[in-house]
Write a sequence for this structure.
């Protein structure tokens, strides 16, 4: 197949074109045109991805867990999965904290700029995202775990932000199916397998639209941030540039050091091959800012291109998309300390440990949707006594950082799935590409 017909090149093409179009549109005041005529294609693409996320999680997890066929295997793989997920998140948090403490981006914001930023985003911070976040403020640090358990399956299934509740239900149902006599379990298993096959086919069909969808999403992001005035983007970036650079550096270090080390030491794969295979997943995560929406493609790539067995991928990846958010945790650590620094507050070791603990819990409870990370940041800020209104400072650049941290989140999920598959002898390196 010629290179330009390969999907990942087409997605890159769409992405770059979307960026360029967004810049031209913002410079020429075509914001309205873009949101009227271009953005809807991005919305359709996002909706299609989100549409299949829930059926995919349910069908793949129930069949995935049930096909493990005995509870010992399940608890072994489950234990390993959760252990590695927590460990990588912990490392991500440490990287974030070390960087933000050493580089001190909060020290460099001039006081006038700080006031101006706070004023600009104060409204948005009190309405919109922050209002939703305010509701979470008063809850116990264990709330994410409490929220994991649904009390109504229909409510849980009807809200993509409650994906984790469905993960819980599906694992629970899968376990019960293992315990039911085989003959009785078979019809249900067959049904879910068939649903699973159908959903995977839908993913392939939706991905044909990816280049156009990604173009539209990017064009819309740029014009929305710029609000028809490109110079405002540059102003914002110069004010929050140092902070953003620290987040980006942390994400890169985590991906390059932690994930590469895991792949190098624990799998037989070449890093180059892995990086090439995972690229379309990263591009999609970047464009959609949602690990939930990216999940169907993460699973497809893990199985088809990386060679992770269906058994492992269908269990480890849906769980990862919902509970493993290294990029988000790292960003939250940097953001929390940055806000404290700009407000002239000093966070001692105890406070920083509290950040680690709350951010680990928060990343479990963070929904795999755009902007969820900044909402959970409120809990972290509250836990260390930093005024949560401080998120007003960083709201402006959050969308861009969201795109980048989501890339880290999905890369982490795929890395851990590969590691688990290798440890279980369920990795087929060099699997021939089907398409
Ligand atoms: N957008 C992120 C994700 O879906 C979550 C976040 O950090 O906002 O992975």
């Amino acid at each position: 197949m010629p290179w330009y017909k390969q999907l990942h090149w087409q997605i890159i093409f769409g992405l770059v074109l979307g960026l360029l179009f967004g810049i031209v549109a913002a410079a020429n005041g075509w914001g309205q045109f873009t949101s009227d005529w271009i953005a809807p294609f991005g919305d359709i693409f996002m909706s299609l991805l989100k549409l299949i996320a829930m059926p995919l999680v349910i069908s793949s997890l129930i069949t995935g867990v049930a096909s493990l066929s005995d509870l010992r295997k399940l608890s072994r793989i489950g234990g390993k999965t959760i252990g590695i997920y927590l460990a990588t998140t912990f490392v991500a948090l440490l990287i974030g904290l070390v960087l933000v403490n050493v580089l001190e981006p909060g020290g460099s914001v001039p006081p006038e700029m700080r006031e101006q930023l706070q004023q600009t985003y104060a409204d948005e911070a009190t309405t919109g995202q922050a209002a939703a976040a305010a509701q979470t403020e008063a809850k116990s640090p264990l709330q994410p775990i409490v929220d994991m358990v649904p009390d109504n399956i229909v409510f849980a299934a009807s809200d993509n932000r409650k994906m984790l509740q469905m993960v819980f239900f599906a694992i629970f149902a899968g376990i019960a199916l293992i315990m039911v006599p085989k003959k009785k379990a078979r019809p249900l298993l067959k049904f879910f397998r068939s649903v699973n096959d159908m959903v995977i086919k839908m993913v392939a069909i939706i991905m044909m639209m990816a280049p156009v969808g990604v173009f539209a999403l990017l064009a819309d992001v740029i014009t929305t941030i710029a609000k028809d005035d490109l110079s405002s983007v540059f102003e914002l970036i110069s004010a929050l540039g140092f902070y953003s650079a620290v987040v980006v550096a942390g994400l890169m270090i985590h991906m390059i050091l932690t994930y590469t080390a895991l792949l190098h030491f624990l799998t037989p794969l070449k890093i180059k091959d892995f990086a090439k295979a995972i690229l379309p997943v990263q591009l999609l995560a970047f464009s959609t800012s949602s690990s939930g929406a990216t999940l169907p493609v993460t699973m497809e790539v893990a199985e088809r291109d990386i060679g992770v067995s269906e058994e492992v991928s269908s269990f480890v990846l849906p769980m990862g998309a919902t509970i493993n958010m290294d990029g988000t945790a790292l960003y939250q650590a940097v953001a929390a300390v940055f806000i404290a620094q700009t407000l002239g507050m000093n966070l001692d070791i105890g406070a920083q440990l509290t950040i680690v603990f709350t951010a680990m819990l928060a990343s479990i409870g963070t929904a795999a949707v755009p902007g969820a990370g900044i909402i959970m940041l409120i809990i972290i800020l509250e836990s260390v006594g930093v005024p949560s209104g401080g998120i007003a400072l960083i709201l402006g650049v959050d969308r861009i950082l969201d795109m980048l941290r989501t890339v880290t989140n999905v890369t982490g999920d795929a890395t851990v799935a590969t590691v688990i598959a290798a440890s279980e002898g369920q990795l087929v390196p060099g699997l021939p590409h089907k398409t």
